[in-house]
Amino acid sequence: MVQAYHAVPVSVEYEDADNGRPTDHEGSALLGSGTSGVGIAKSEVQKEGHATLTSSVGNLANTIIGSGMLTFPRALASSGIIPGMLTCAFCGAVSAFSLYLLSTCGRHAPHRRSSFFAIATLTFPRAAVFFDAAIAIKCFGVSISYLIIIKSLLPNVVASLYHDLSSPDTNPPAWALSGRIWISLVMVVLVPLSYLRRLDSLRHTSYIALFSCAYLVLIVVLCYFRPIEGMTPPGEVHLIKFTPSFLSTFPIQVFAFTCAQNLFPIYNELKSNSQKRMNIVIGTAIGSTTLTYEIIAVFGYLTFGSHVSANIIAMYPSTSLFIAVGQLAIAILVIFSYPLQVHPCRNCLDKVFHFESA
């Protein structure tokens, strides 16, 4: 129906969610001004996603992988190699299935406006704001923990690199060992990254973080075949041996696959976001991270046995430049994981603050 330009309709006509649904414009909220599931006005211009499979897999994998992977050898020590590998694979499979269910639910939301708020509005409209509030609090807590890790880790990394590159008897200047200075310098980089509108804009930092993760895998594997002088001697290795600490290490494996907060942004931004392409993104990201966890867990446990600690990288002597660079890689991994927590936190807070108008 064609309307005159001077006519102002009382109600706006909407298109169906599966037939050429338009999306938001740059002036709207992060996830749109009305993601309640009823539809988007026809007058808006349709805007498709531009993210590739590679960038989507990179961002999702970087969301999954964090400093928690350093505890996986300890998880194997608490149960044995076989149960530890099975529980890791089980957690990955459950996480992949949950992401598949979320992507399926996303198809019922307005076109490229999928979010937890939009899905919750279709099921529990009055409680939708509480879902986003819970996710925002969770992401905020994780991002703060990343900053704490960065503040405590970078001075040690600087000290190790300084000793390895100069002389063991030479200490770095006092300012270089100040956690406050380093966290301030890091925030100069993180603040602009945290304000990027699209998750796909973080693809390059995700690639750097994943490269850092690959370097850590290289350290664990090479140090098993060629131990470094000064390493802790290995303890007993068991195929199956459950200990009381298994009750505390199993939840670590479960939460190591947490990434659902970024599933909907990836789904919205992926070019041709069919279920088949989403399955490729989910399967590749979960599969690669599961393999990474398994390699670090098995080789780390075989290297130190029952003597392995909760932080595998701390078991290697930092007197080696090879290990010192690995500590720097952990810092880089954590630094570039921070924006991936801030982005969903912003999205959820946006819906909380605009709840009355949504």
UniProtKB/TrEMBL annotation:
The UniProt record lists the keyword Transmembrane helix: yes
Pfam family, one: Aa_trans
Keywords of the record: Amino-acid transport, Membrane, Transmembrane, Transmembrane helix, Transport, Vacuole
InterPro entries named in the record: AA_transpt_TM
Transmembrane annotation, as ranges: 81-102, 123-154, 174-195, 207-227, 247-267, 279-302, 314-336
Biased composition (Basic and acidic residues): 18-27
Membrane topology: Multi-pass membrane protein
PANTHER family given in the database record: AMINO ACID TRANSPORTER, VACUOLAR AMINO ACID TRANSPORTER 5-RELATED
Membership in a protein family: Belongs to the amino acid/polyamine transporter 2 family.
The protein, known as: Transmembrane amino acid transporter protein-domain-containing protein
Region of interest (Disordered), ranges: 15-34
Subcellular location as annotated: Vacuole membrane
Domain Amino acid transporter transmembrane per the UniProt entry, residue ranges: 51-355
